[in-house]
Amino acid sequence: MDWYPLWNSLRIAAISSVLVFFSGIFAAYYVAKLPRAIKGVLDVVLTLPMVLPPTVVGYFLLLLFGVNRPLGILLGQIGIRFVMTWYGGILTAAVVAFPLMYRTARGAFESFDNTLAYSGQTLGLSNTYIFWRIRMPYCRQGILAGTVLAFARALGEYGATSMLIGYTPGKTATISTAVYQYWRTNDEQSAFLWVMINLAISAVVLLAVNMLEKKNGRKGARR
Amino acid sequence: MSLVVDIQKDFGGFRLNVQFEAQEGIMGILGASGCGKSMTLRCIAGVEKPDAGRIVLDGRTLYDSARRINVKPQERQVGYLFQNYALFPNMTVRQNILCGMRRLKDKADRERLLCEQLELMQLSGLEKHYPAQLSGGQQQRVALARILVSRPKLLMLDEPFSALDSHLREKLLVEMKETLRRYGGVSLVVTHNRDEAYDLCSSIALMETGRVHTHKPTKQLFADPGTVVGAMMTGCKNIAPARCVGEYEAEVPDWGITLRTARPVGENLKAVGIRAHYFGPNSRQNSFGVRIIDVVEEPFADIIRFRYENQAPGTEDLWWRTAKQNRPPKEAWGAYTLGISPVNILTLYDPGEEPEAGQEEGTAG
Question: What ipTM describes this predicted complex?
Answer without folding.
Answer: 0.83
